[in-house]
Structure prediction request, 431 residues.
Amino acid sequence: MNGCTERVYNGLIKENPTFVLMLGMCPTLAVTTSAINGVGMGLSTTVVLVLSNMLISMLRKIIPDSVRMPAFIVVVASFVTIVQFLLEGFVPSLYASLGLYIPLIVVNCIILGRAESYASKNPVVLSIFDGIGMGLGFTVGLTAIGLVRELIGSGKVFDYQLLPLADMSTGQAGYVPVTIFILAPGAFLVLAGLTALQNKMKINAAKKGKKVIEAAGCGEGCASCAGCSKTVFPTGNEKE
Amino acid sequence: MKELLIIAIGSAIVNNVVLSQFLGICPFLGVSKKVETASGMGGAVIFVITIASFITSLIYKFILVPLNISYLQTIVFILVIAALVQFVEMFLKKAMPSLYNALGVYLPLITTNCAVLGVALTNVQKDYGILTGVVNGIGTSLGFAIAIIIMAGIREKIEYNDISESFQGTPIVLITAALMSIAFFGFSGLI
Prediction:
């Protein structure tokens, strides 16, 4: 396996940002009310991630170490602004449903995390593929959560009515949607189920004596963001 | 005055920043193991968001809008917030060492707390003025503090519970958050 496919595999499966590293929890929970929103958010993040990885990798020898955090933030924020305007212009419906969470891509720890831990140390092409892998991994994670929530919460898949709904007035039998899954608590419940499943697999793997891949990127489990900023920011602080 | 009160209650309880808007999930899950640290984090967030919403409203109204560069808001706000957090940290260290000792560790974490940027952007989106923006900021950060302190209180009790192996750690915390979120739905008729 050459370097580029290895990066994509790494992002998609081995270090999947949603299920393994547990990064970027805010958009994961907030926009996954439907699968299509998950895809939209995932792809927007991917675009920002690939472009910012590319630019930061190009500039890695120019940016002085002491101001690298602010420099990264400016690069990421510029690309986020560009993506925001493109979405507003070309996909206004998606822009409306994602709303506030588009500009908030800036503070998504996946992007700053990859910039700090990968793009600032590696050549351009590898960084681009790292961005593609991580971005697609994030997209897959969001889409999976979105699919579960949309299916249970409204009986639809990608806006297609998969399960025929029950109709009280005509007495027709059918699926009664569990609306709570597309409301706020549903996000927490689905994510809780998925992480429990992942824990279960880890425990089984550990019992068989296999080596378990830990949330390698940033700290333990879901404290990731706190852990992440702990590792990311104080370095910026001391020198800033 | 009545409108301000409605905005404050609305953003603190009814549209709770963590439980219904999903901003600041990371510190909510990460720093909520003990009531003591959770209230420290809550205090630091109240402090920073209040100042940040004041300063970003000022910058938006008197710099970005007159110069016609309001499309730069995301870049400007995140830089202002990052700089502000640094500045607050330095200022507290010199001027109020006791407060710094209480909040110090949490301050650097706040830059990546999306609630801060979220409040600044909401203020712009909803066309809030400076005073309304600050009130919205106070309300939102109070909501964050309420949620994280309740969560920490529950987690301290969960420690003693017998939880099945695969649900230990993050999953049980997420389920607790889901139940809290359902409880907060009860406030939705308030305004």
